[in-house]
Amino acid sequence: MGAIAALLFLVGVFALIASWGMLIIASFKEDYAWGLCSVLLPPLAYLVGLLQWNKAKDALLTASLGLVLLFLSTTV
């Protein structure tokens, strides 16, 4: 793994972690039960984000950027 691939991978992982945190905050703002489920089951946070697009748009865009960076790190 080259230096650029490692950097893309690291930034992608940080973007995914940040988006998960943003989605947890959005879930708790929506409902306590959704927030708690999002903490315990991380993929559920992304489902809640898709259902509440207007409140979690930034978090989902950050997650998609993270996924793109992870994909690019495997191809470089």
Write a structural description.
This protein is mostly helical and about 80 residues long. The mean pLDDT is about 90. About 25% of the residues are buried. The chain has four helices and no strands. It has helices at about 5-30, 30-40, 40-50, 55-75. The longest helix has 28 residues, at about 5-30.
Largest sheet entry:
none
How many alpha or pi helices?
A: 4
| Helix content range | over 70%
Q: Specify Rg, calculated over alpha carbons.
A: 14 Å
- Average pLDDT works out at 91
Shape: elongated
* Low-confidence runs of at least 5 consecutive residues: none
The span between the termini is 8 Å
Given helix and strand content, the structural type is mainly alpha
Order of helices and strands: HHHH
Strand residue percentage: under 5%
Q: Count the strands? A: 0
